[in-house]
Give the backbone structure.
Amino acid sequence: MPSRRPYVTDAIVLSRFELGEADRVLTLLTPEHGKIRAIARGIRRQTSRLGGSLEPFAELRVALAHGRTFEVVTQVSVSHAWLRLRDSLESAATAWYLAELADRSSEEGAAAESLYRLLRRAYELLEAGMAAGRVARWYEMRLADELGMRPEVDRCVECDRMLEPTDRFRWVPVLGGVLCERHVAPQTSRVDLSLDALKLLKAYQRMDAEALVGLRLAVGVEREVEAALRDFVRQVLERDPRSLAFLDEVRVGRAPA
């Protein structure tokens, strides 16, 4: 847990909400202290010293003091702002989705250095112009690793037999991965998986982000893997992330700018 004395930490804003007439409460992800709830007093006033620094999609250096309910932000500076990330509405919506996954996967007061690095790297990839969908799949797969719930894509989750290209595959998130054709899965918790989709799942699990950029893939295969990993994330988190609805609206062009 953070000390009662003032302290300084790197941080990324995961979420925020307004409180009263001028305050704002933020959820911050930090490497050393995990998730922190902090209040920025008077930040919505034009005269606030904190100004517009406490924004999402930036790596911050934040000074905090211990408060009764929330930590209190006393000073903030921007270490790195991922400005180009905001130029695309889909990229920004994806960034919010990734932040929500980090929020739901972290605990207050528990060190989260690897999760912090993962989110920061995902924002760097979005900033560099990598396709938002591929960044999201890369992040989902590595987040599962961080949580100790790596999906099985090489062997059958039931009999541990190595999967063969001639098999028929079923994706069963409740069982933790791919089920071979020799076993029966509950109809409500499985979907058929093509060989190309299985190969792509393996690529997201094994390849670094730079290598994923150059893959040439059929749209149908990418959508199949997106659905598969979303189902897996839903199983891990036990519900759908709220930000997915907005992200999907953005992708079909129905969301406001």
Summary: Residues 219-237 form the longest helix (19 residues). The CA atoms of residues 105 and 147 lie 8 Å apart. The mean pLDDT is 89. The beta strands are 7-19, 23-30, 34-40, 58-65, 71-81, 169-172, 177-179, 191-193.
